[in-house]
Amino acid sequence: MKRLRALPIDVWFEPLIIAVIGIGYLLWYRASTFTATEQASLGWANLRTTIVEHVRLTVVATLIVVAVAIPLGIALTRPALRRLEPLAVNIANIGQAAPAVGLLVLFTFWLGTGFRTAVVGLVVYAILPILQNTIVGLRQVDQRTIEASRGIGFSGLRTLVQVELPLAVPVILNGVRTALVILVGTATLSTFIGATSLGTLITTGVTLFLPKLLISGAVLVGLLALIIDWLGRLVELAATPRGIS
């Protein structure tokens, strides 16, 4: 009990919410009578493929966003490129401000339909939180700490790796969690450009007026977002150096 109380409330409370929603959905699923279309879409074989494709879409987009946004954020906090920070953030903000569906549709004119186009659209849409949090996290590192590390002989690169980044980890990972949740939700829209996702259940439910299919799609997307957010929180907690909240 002492260990449980020592943990942040979201670390143990969020799994309880996930469990309650998941059990509630399973009970509702077992008690419901489905049409032939609903049975075909919600059968485990099809549902597993849909969930796996949705997760794959989210993970691939996240890896690309992280690989682009964190190095770019680091570069923009260095003296040589600091003047370009407002320009880069404003460009990233355009992607965030644009309607997700419109962004995906625009990319289809360039790349066609399918998985690759969905990934590109999601990357553009989710780059801002990680970029911004990387910049903010590095900016908030006390300048005296940086000067002290340089004073004991650390190079600029060593100071970045061993001092600045560890201190900025909580803020950076919080941006990654935010981007993950955004991507899980936005990935549902990829169904409009021919990529398989849980959005297929939602659009089919709306198009054919099948409320149970629509509810299933919405609940599963919500559960997936909660699970990924919780896993991201665990990674954030584990990666944060002791003494830094």
Give an overview in words.
The protein has 245 residues and is an all-alpha fold. It has one domain: MetI-like fold (Orthogonal Bundle), CATH 1.10.3720.10. Helix 9 runs antiparallel to helix 11. Keywords: Membrane, Transmembrane, Transmembrane helix, Transport.
Task: Give a topology summary.
Elements: H1 2-6, H2 9-31, H3 36-42, H4 44-76, H5 85-97, H6 100-111, H7 115-139, H8 143-151, H9 156-186, H10 199-207, H11 211-239
Protein name: ABC transporter permease
Keywords: Membrane, Transmembrane, Transmembrane helix, Transport
Subcellular location: Cell membrane; Membrane
Structure keywords:
245 residues, 0% strand, single chain, mainly alpha, MetI-like fold, 11 helices
Largest sheet: none
CATH architecture: Orthogonal Bundle
Q: What is the H level of CATH, i.e. the homologous superfamily?
A: MetI-like
- Report the portion of residues in β strands: under 5%
> In terms of structural class, how would the helical and strand content be classed?
mainly alpha
Number of beta-strand segments:
0
Instruction: Give the count of helical stretches.
Output: 11
Number of domains: 1
The CATH topology, please? Answer: MetI-like fold
What are the low-pLDDT stretches, counting only 5+ consecutive residues below 50? none
Q: Mean pLDDT across all residues, rounded?
A: 87
Order of helices and strands: HHHHHHHHHHH
Shape: flat
How large, in whole angstroms, is the Cα Rg? 21 Å
The CATH class turns out to be Mainly Alpha
Helical percent range?
over 70%
Distance between the termini: 21 Å
Transmembrane segments: 12-31, 51-75, 87-112, 118-139, 179-201, 213-232
Subcellular location: Cell membrane; Membrane
GO cellular component, one term: plasma membrane
Domain ABC transmembrane type-1: 51-232
